[in-house]
Specification:
This protein has 181 residues and is α/β, with parallel strands linked by helices. The chain has helices spanning 31-45, 61-72, 108-118, 122-137, 145-161, and strands at residues 2-4, 14-22, 53-59, 80-84, 100-107. It has one domain: Metalloproteases ("zincins"), catalytic domain (Collagenase (Catalytic Domain), 3-Layer(aba) Sandwich).
C-alpha cells in the first residue's frame, strides 16, 4: 500500500493500493519502492479515488511481446502496456472493496535500451513508463494531437514533480505504440 503524506495540516493522508510485481532482472535495489512512489504521485496528481488499486508489473521483452501480440496484434516488444479495468455502470462494488484501476506492464529490457539510447538513467525511464501507464488507466489517451498534447503535459508535470527530468520530451513519437488494451 502506498501513502502520500498530507501537503498541509488541514489535509488527510491519501492511500492507494499499489503493487509492484517483478518478473524481470532488476538491478536497481530501491526501484520497487520508487515505482510505488511514482504511481502514488500520479494518482494524487490526478485526484484518483482514495483506496483505488493498481499493479505495476515488470517483465522482460519476451513476456511483453507475448502480451503485445495477444492483446494488440502487434509483433515484438513494446515499452509499456496498460490494461484498464472497465467497470460496467450497473456493477455495484462492495463497500470495503477498492476500485481496481488495472495493470501497467513494463518491459525492463526495453526501458534499459531506451534510457541508454537517449542518454538518461533507467530510473527516469521507468518512472516515465509508470506515469504513462497510470495515465492510461485513468482514462487519458493520445490518439489525436489535442489529446496527445494534454497527455504529454500531464506526464511531464508529474515526472518533474517526482524529481525527474522530462525525459518524455526527448521523443514525443515514442509512445505512439504504447496503448491501452
Amino acid at each position: 500500500m502506498s501513502t502520500l503524506p498530507p501537503s498541509s495540516e488541514s489535509e488527510t493522508e491519501t492511500t492507494w493500493e499499489i503493487t509492484v510485481e517483478v518478473y524481470a532482472s532488476l538491478a536497481e535495489a530501491d526501484a520497487v519502492a520508487e515505482l510505488e512512489r511514482v504511481a502514488a504521485a500520479t494518482l494524487s496528481a490526478e485526484e484518483a479515488v482514495e483506496g483505488a488499486s493498481l499493479s505495476v508489473v515488470l517483465v522482460d521483452d519476451t513476456e511483453i511481446a507475448t502480451l503485445n501480440q495477444q492483446y494488440r496484434r502487434v509483433a515484438g516488444p513494446t515499452d509499456v502496456l496498460a490494461f484498464a479495468m472497465q467497470e460496467d455502470d450497473a456493477f455495484i462494488r462492495a463497500v470495503d472493496t477498492p476500485q481496481e484501476l488495472g495493470d501497467v506492464v513494463i518491459s525492463v529490457e526495453t526501458a534499459r535500451r531506451q534510457a541508454a539510447s537517449l542518454g538518461h538513467d533507467v530510473a527516469a525511464e521507468l518512472a516515465l513508463l509508470v506515469i504513462h501507464g497510470c495515465l492510461h488507466l485513468l482514462g487519458y489517451d493520445h490518439g489525436d494531437r489535442s489529446a496527445q498534447a494534454q497527455f504529454w503535459e500531464r506526464q511531464a508535470a508529474i515526472l518533474t514533480g517526482c524529481g525527474y527530468p522530462d525525459v518524455g520530451a526527448e521523443r514525443p513519437e515514442l509512445h505512439e505504440q504504447a496503448d491501452d488494451v
